[in-house]
Amino acid sequence: MKVKVEVRVFATLRKYLPELGIGEPKIVELPQGSTFEDLREMLGLPIEEIKIIMRNGIQTEMDEIIEDGDRIAYAPAVAGG
Known about the structure:
By secondary structure, the protein is mainly beta. The protein has a single domain, classed as Roll (Ubiquitin-like (UB roll)), CATH 3.10.20. The protein is 10% helix and 32% strand. The protein has one helix and five strands; from the N terminus they run ββαβββ. It has one helix at 36-43; strands at residues 2-9, 26-31, 52-55, 58-60, 71-75. It has a five-stranded mixed sheet, with helices on one face. The chain is globular, with a radius of gyration of 12 Å.
């Protein structure tokens, strides 16, 4: 069985999914039981560049199980001043 999710990447992570416009989601189907780490690997996002993972607007961890319909965002560390 598969789950379907909506994924967005922000800032410097956008270069790994160049086909997406700013803020545009990628619809992804994954095997049931997949984690945020599995999805990260499938998308080709380097682990060292990810600072925050959000699920439906709430911060989550790499080892959490993805649920059907989740809205997922990966964000890098952001410097500012």
